[in-house]
Amino acid sequence: MNSVVSNRILFAVLLSFSMLLCACGHTDHTIKMKGSDTEVNLVVNLAEAYQLTDPTFSMSISGGGSGLGITSLLNGQADIANSSRPLTDEERNLFQKKNIPLRTIVFAEDATAFVVHRDNPIQEIDVATLGKIMSGAMVSWKPLSGMELPINIYGRQSSSGTYSFIRKKLKVAYSQKAKEMTGNAQILEAIKIDKSGIGYVGAGYISKKIQDNKGIKVLKIKDTAGADAISPLDPAAIKNRLYFFQRPLYQFIPEKSWTKVQPFIQFETEGEGTKIIENSGYYLIQ
């Protein structure tokens, strides 16, 4: 996670602590959110804006992956689990066994982008070829770009919802040589200095202004070799559900926390939060 995001999350945590002291122990005004690294930038933006409208609430936010957020709910350590994937059958069973009823909110949509170094000549790639790269079946850039360079894969850890999402969409097992990174920002920084690199990140981590994405190139994706190439940064394509790697973003909320978090959920899904979602590089649910 980059220093700007880390500082903002630290600010949110410190603000949470100071407001807790002022609240004289009224912990029902504290909302704890944990989970998806894809969502963490977005929820920090939303939380900062929401606290301006209702300073009686405090927000504590951390990333670490969708799996971590869901586990935090199971352990009673969070009010909201941010997740870039749905619950697995095993997770649903665990919540049932622990008698923890959940509400599921789909509050935004993400388009997972594949990025390469800016000097890589390729502009687009089809899904079948991408599957060969991510599985390790294709190990050199030469057939694609003419570069006499090995392919270095940068991905996420297995606790990441994006890790699971890409694997399922490509229907492959990841190459054992793939480098597992702790977050989207770390993947981007690695690609900027590695001409051999390719990785995947949430579109919210990439500017819609191509000139601002220094050091990287966002690939257009083709469903099949002869199909049109679609960019994850194209709002019209996302609206029409044309991009292969677009997906909903979830928030899972225990029923016992619903009354407390409902005003915030309404803010992000019906109020000013919808503008923040779009301005942060994500998409509204159509």
Written description of the protein model:
- This protein has helices spanning 3-22, 37-53, 66-74, 89-97, 127-135, 142-145, 161-170, 184-192, 235-239, 258-270, 273-279, and strands spanning 30-35, 58-64, 80-83, 102-117, 124-126, 152-156, 179-181, 197-202, 216-218, 220-222, 246-254.
- α2 (37-53) links the parallel β1 (30-35) and β2.
- It is globular and about 60 Å long.
- With 286 residues, it is of the alpha/beta class.
- It has eleven helices and eleven strands.
- α1 (3-22) crosses α2 and α10 packs across α11.
- Residues 1-7 and 9-26 have low confidence and may be disordered.
- The strands form two sheets. Strands 1, 2, 3, 4, 6, 7, 8, 9 and 11 form a nine-stranded mixed β-sheet that branches. A two-stranded parallel ribbon has the order 5-10.
- It folds into two domains: 3-108 and 248-279, 3-Layer(aba) Sandwich (D-Maltodextrin-Binding Protein, domain 2), CATH 3.40.190; 110-239, Periplasmic binding protein-like II (D-Maltodextrin-Binding Protein, domain 2).
Number of strands: 11
Helix content: 25-40%
Estimate the global geometry from the Cα principal axes. Answer: globular
Q: How large, in whole angstroms, is the Cα Rg? A: 19 Å
Q: How would you concisely characterize the structure shown here?
A:
This protein is an alpha/beta fold and 286 residues long.
What is the topological layout?
Blueprint: H1 3-22, E1 30-35, H2 37-53, E2 58-64, H3 66-74, E3 80-83, H4 89-97, E4 102-117, E5 124-126, H5 127-135, H6 142-145, E6 152-156, H7 161-170, E7 179-181, H8 184-192, E8 197-202, E9 216-218, E10 220-222, H9 235-239, E11 246-254, H10 258-270, H11 273-279
Parallel strand pairs: 1-2, 1-3, 5-10, 6-7, 6-8
Antiparallel strand pairs: 3-11, 4-8, 4-9, 4-11
Helix pairs in contact: 1-2, 10-11
